[in-house]
Amino acid sequence: MDKCLFCNIYESPKNKIIAESSLAFAIYDGFPVNEGHILVIPKRHFGSFFDATEQEINEIYDLLNKCKAILDNKYHPTGYNVGVNVGYDGGQTIMHLHIHLIPRYKGDVENPRGGIRKLKPQLVYYEG
Length: 128
Prior knowledge:
- The chain has helices spanning about 5-10, 55-75; strands at about 15-20, 25-30, 40, 80-85, 100-105.
- The chain is of the alpha+beta class.
- The protein has a five-stranded antiparallel beta sheet, with helices on one face.
- Strand 1 and strand 2 (about 25-30) form a beta hairpin.
């Protein structure tokens, strides 16, 4: 997996990793939607959430909770969005499963009703 960004991040020096289990790890998103935006990523290379094993899902869930505690302590968000993009047509741009843990803050959008459907204007331009 020479070209997989997430495989390369895991195999490089681990100073970027903020939490880890035997099957997954967590990093801050390089293009955060909000301050503290975290990605939880399985160590095994595969693309779809639906290809994860039960053990991988359990460890991802545990890491999401550990990361939430980190964010609660460091940034004090007042809400969260948790999201997964599956496949190109589902908006996935890196074909290695990753789960977004996005802290939300009072006033980060004028009206938060509708959750991720209205979270933020496009922050990163994707060609094509």
